[in-house]
Amino acid sequence: MTDVILAGEPEARPRAQTEPEGGETPAFDVIELLFFAYRDFVRDPDEALDAYGFGRAHHRVLHFVDRNPGLRVTELLDILKITKQSLGRVLRELVDKGFVTQREGAADRRQRLLFVTERGDRLVKELHRLQTRRISRALGQCSAAERDAVRRFLFEIIDPQERAQVAELTGVEPPPARR
Predict the structure, then answer these.
(1) What phi and psi values does residue 24 have, to the nearest 5 degrees?
(2) What is the pLDDT of residue 173?
């Protein structure tokens, strides 16, 4: 028997109710907003990267190599929290296609220091422009105090043991806690 589908308004689906564990009610509003914000934050760069056959892993590598010229491969592994094998594939593609270059360390020739090439720099600037436009639009609606609250919130999501490294990498100190 064939299902008959009539055009019209879709049926309203009830929202799933998740029982709180440990007495803590899930923060679905924030969880879902983060999912959707991240989806849209990476959409424009994803489309730009697709033209090169690249994905989000390539974006992350390009971003941190650009922001930290001379970054050691071991440091990049620590930042991204990925395996050497995962990074190896992505890095090889970026090097082979002329977006990143590797140089030997001056003191230790076994070190591989990473730099974006001119071609990599052009792509990174385009990716930054796309994401900056979206962030500027959102933060343009916020007061200075609200921007501090956004930064504070994002730092609080980061694992406490990682915050010092993130502050050092970004050059952004966590905003002082509200009193």
Answers:
(1) -100, 120
(2) 80
Give the residue carrying structure tokens 């600037």. Answer: 125
Q: Would you say 101 and 95 are in contact if contact means Cβ atoms under 8 Å apart?
A: yes
Ordered by start, the domain boundaries in the chain are 28-169
CATH class of the domain whose range is 28-169: mainly alpha
What letter does residue 162 receive in the DSSP assignment? Answer: G
- In the chain, helix, strand, coil percent, each to 5? 60, 10, 35
| Eight-class DSSP state of 178 | P
Q: What is the pLDDT of residue 105?
A: 77
pLDDT in the model for residue 19: 64
| Token couple for 143 | 């007061």
Neighbours of 157 (CB within 10 A): 8
Closest to 98 measured CA to CA, from 60, 67, 58, 132:
58
SS (H, E, C) 27-80: CHHHHHHHHHHHHHHHHHHHHHHHCCCCCHHHHHHHHHHHHCCCEEHHHHHHHH
Residue ranges in the chain modelled with pLDDT below 70 = 1-10, 13-21, 175-179
Torsion from C-alpha of 105, 109, 113, 116, nearest 10 degrees: 100
The C-alpha angle with vertex 27 and arms to 21 and 32, in degrees rounded to 5, equals 125
